Amino acid sequence: MLIFTIRKYSFGIILILLFPNVLISQSFNDFERSNTEARFVFYNTENLFDIYKDSVKRDEDFTPNGAKHWDKWKYYEKQENLSKVIISIGGWDLPELVAFCEIENKKVLYDLTNYTSLKNKGYEIIHFESPDRRGIDVGFIYLKDKIEVLEAEPITINFPWDSNYKTRDILHSKLLLFKTDTLHFFVCHWPSKWGGHLETDKSRFLVGSVLKKEIDKTYNENPGAKILVMGDMNDTPFDESLTEGLGAKTDTVNCKRNSLVNLSAAFVNDKTGTHKYQDSWSVIDHVIVNYDLLNPNNSMHVKDRRAYVFKEDYLIEKDPKFFGEKPFRTYIGMRYNGGYSDHLPVFVDFKLR
Question: pTM, whole model, 2 decimals?
Answer without folding.
Answer: 0.92
